[in-house]
Design goal:
alpha/beta, TIM Barrel, six-stranded parallel sheet, three-stranded parallel sheet, globular
């Protein structure tokens, strides 16, 4: 009898179709700290479809101390996900790149011409340490540009050592680096300070892309409860343009 009352309280499904594509997630099972089973991969794909995504580039960690993922491992994994998605009737364009931790292995690959898995436009998704600042961050990102890639720095709002002088982000952008904020940083999932930095970067026009950085189905459920409409109206992102390249 009271079903109508509870139905009214249900929140409207988030619509992130304006972004068009997600360029940061961890959907290949068993190769990093993302999903563990192909069943969870399918759950996440369905949730992403419901959010409005039609094209994804999932990005497993390549962090040589923890996740020694090679292009072959990632390609085999994404092929398994694609096959499972087709069998499950999920109509999405499913691709893979990688999220490269800037460590000695990455620098060696960059210097020796080793194969690196890229996003459209020869873009490289890279991440930094969370707690300890690299002494040569600017130099490494400039080196990436010099090698013909365009660096996309993952979740810059989470690198707390830059908080004292956030002007570093403008300098990185001026060097040719693009910045990707996590959707959940626009809420309080990572804490109030991360949220404030994400808002600062967005308000100053420094963020180019928005990514889910989803590691598990629960992350997508939280995204669905994040205040999306405000920032989608306020800010313009380039995910769709990247999608068209």
């Amino acid at each position: 009898m009271l079903n109508w009352l509870f139905d009214k309280k249900k929140k409207e499904q988030a619509d992130l179709s304006e972004l068009g594509m997600d360029l940061h997630s961890h959907l290949i099972p068993g190769i990093d700290d993302g999903v563990e089973t192909i069943e969870d991969s399918l759950i996440m794909l369905r949730k992403m479809y419901d959010l409005g995504y039609r094209r994804i580039f999932t990005t497993p960690h390549v962090m040589w101390d923890c996740y020694r993922n090679t292009p072959q491992v990632i390609r085999e994994g994404i092929n398994d996900v694609r096959v499972a998605a087709v069998n499950a009737g999920i109509d999405m364009d499913i691709n893979a790149a990688a999220e490269y931790f800037i460590d000695e292995h990455f620098v060696e690959l960059l210097n020796t011409g080793g194969e690196l898995l890229t996003l459209p436009g020869n873009r490289l998704l890279v991440e930094l340490p969370y707690s300890t600042k690299l002494m040569n961050t600017s130099e490494t990102l400039f080196q990436i540009v010099a090698k013909g890639y365009r660096p996309v720095l993952a979740h810059p709002e989470r690198y707390t050592y830059f908080y004292q002088d956030p002007s570093i982000f403008k300098k990185l952008c001026d060097q040719g680096c693009e910045l990707q904020v996590n959707v959940l940083s626009l809420g309080n999932y990572y804490g109030e300070n991360v949220h404030k930095m994400a808002d600062y970067l967005l308000s100053n026009g420094l963020i180019t892309y928005v990514g889910t950085d989803a590691h598990k189905p629960a992350h997508l459920d939280l995204i669905n409860r994040t205040d999306k409409k405000g920032w989608l109206k306020k800010y313009k992102f380039q995910n769709m343009k990247l999608m068209e390249e």
